[in-house]
Write a structure and sequence with these properties.
By secondary structure, the chain is of the alpha/beta class. The chain has a single domain (5-293), classed as NAD(P)-binding Rossmann-like Domain (Rossmann fold, 3-Layer(aba) Sandwich), CATH 3.40.50. 45% of the residues lie in helices and 13% in strands. The protein is built from eleven helices and seven strands. Strands 3-2-1-4-5-6-7 form a seven-stranded parallel sheet, with helices on both faces. α4 links the parallel β4 and β5. α1 (29-40) packs across α9 (234-245), α3 packs parallel to α4 and α4 (117-145) runs parallel beside α6 (167-186). The longest helix is centred in the middle third of the chain and has 29 residues, at 117-145. The chain is globular.
Length: 295
């Protein structure tokens, strides 16, 4: 176990006991990290994505450390029939699903004018359409069965600011954020909560290969943009996710929690660049500013 407090499991044992949680894109990266922790807290798991071999390997790995069950399901979330089949297989195995984590995504950097309409489609289809297909399928089931549930959507900090060079992803994540806030209100009467997490930079193979390929991170060291001076640890995101799908967060609904070390605010604050001013220059600057007074 890490000696860094923020990289350690946070919730008390059995916090998710008896829960069945579905994570789309749960075979890799952040989805896998969340899944591993959810089972440690007592949940059974369904992990779904396109690559069955990857899912099966992850399922074996997670099950090894726990007595909980992990069901890997091949499912392309851009295909509604496959998502309905995912619900069917989940119910056959566990009899219920308590939480849906919409984590699957697609993304790559590119000047927008270089994108074909199919390239734009592929990202929006995975991120936005895949999320509302899953949400609609499981939501209708929960409403019909009168089953309380929670949905956790993984977005990004550029869901509200937008971002150049990842425009399809920005457009789609903004849509997911709107979906989160809209249904948090509309479906609260059915006992279904909606929240989102907006992660900053968390090193994963999937994201790094597509967003910081080759030696690009040597040219534009992304850590420079993060006030706390580091990237995120998977466990700290898993801690937050576990809390938001647990019943401990029952009064939190429609919230998006940013976990980015202050990165997006650093980009936003108009005078944040003044941190480049050397300490010894501040005497001179203060004198100049004070001289203005009263004129
Ligand atoms: C321009 C590209 C392209 C590129 C693909 N295309 N890559 N165009 N630049 N680099 C175009 C193709 O030419 C094609 O259009 C269309 O996109 C579909 O491409 P395919 O390769 O056929 O699609 P597919 O095999 O389904 O792959 C989908 C994918 C892939 C999204 C491109 O990367 C993928 O499967 N990703 C899943 C995992 C992932 O992306 N993880 C990262 C999430 S990170 P044409 O017109 O030629 O047919 C993330 C973090 C956000 O979201 C925030 C970080 C801070
Ligand atoms: P990742 O490992 O590439 O995860 C993406 C997952 O989505 C993969 O497991 C992939 O599996 C799955 N997927 C893609 N298309 C799919 C489809 N059509 N149907 C079903 N599953 C599909 O990347 P990650 O970094 O862990 O990202 C996880 C989430 O965090 C994403 O929502 C991402 O936007 C968000 N995020 C990450 C960061 C970061 O720094 N890492 C920052 C902000 C937000 P298959 O290929 O098997 O389908």
């Amino acid at each position: 176990m890490s000696d860094k407090v923020f990289a350690q499991p946070m919730l008390k044992e059995d916090s998710l006991k008896g829960k069945v949680i579905l994570i789309t894109g749960g075979g890799t990266g952040l989805g896998k990290a969340m899944g591993k922790y959810f089972t440690q807290l007592g949940a059974d798991l369904i992990i779904a994505s396109r690559k069955l071999d990857v899912l099966e390997k992850t399922a074996v790995e997670i099950e090894k450390g726990t007595s909980r069950k992990v069901l890997p399901v091949q499912c392309d979330i851009t295909n509604y029939d496959q998502v309905e089949n995912l619900l069917k297989l989940s119910l056959e195995k566990f009899g219920k699903v308590d939480s849906l984590v919409n984590n699957a995504a697609g993304n790559f950097i590119s000047p927008t004018e270089r994108l074909s309409h199919r390239a734009f489609d592929i990202i929006v289809n995975i991120v936005l359409k895949g999320t509302y297909y899953s949400t609609l399928t499981f939501g209708k089931h929960w409403i019909k069965e009168k089953q309380p549930a929670s949905v956790l959507n993984i977005v990004t900090t550029y869901a509200w600011t937008g971002s150049a060079y990842v425009v399809p992803s920005a457009v789609a994540k903004a849509g997911v954020l709107a979906l989160t806030r809209s249904l948090a209100v509309e479906w609260a009467k059915y006992g279904i909560r909606f929240n989102a997490i907006a992660p900053g930079l968390f090193p994963t193979k999937g994201a790094w290969e597509r967003l910081l390929p080759g030696n690009i991170s040597e040219k534009f060291n992304p850590v420079i943009k993060i006030p706390v001076g580091r990237t995120g640890e998977h466990q700290e995101l898993a801690n937050l996710a576990a809390y938001l799908v647990s019943d401990f967060s029952s009064f939190i609904n429609g919230e998006v929690v940013t976990i980015d070390g202050g990165e997006w605010l650093k980009g936003a604050g108009q005078f944040n660049m003044l941190e480049l001013v050397p300490t010894e220059m501040w005497d001179e600057i203060e004198k100049a500013v004070r001289n203005v007074k009263g004129r």
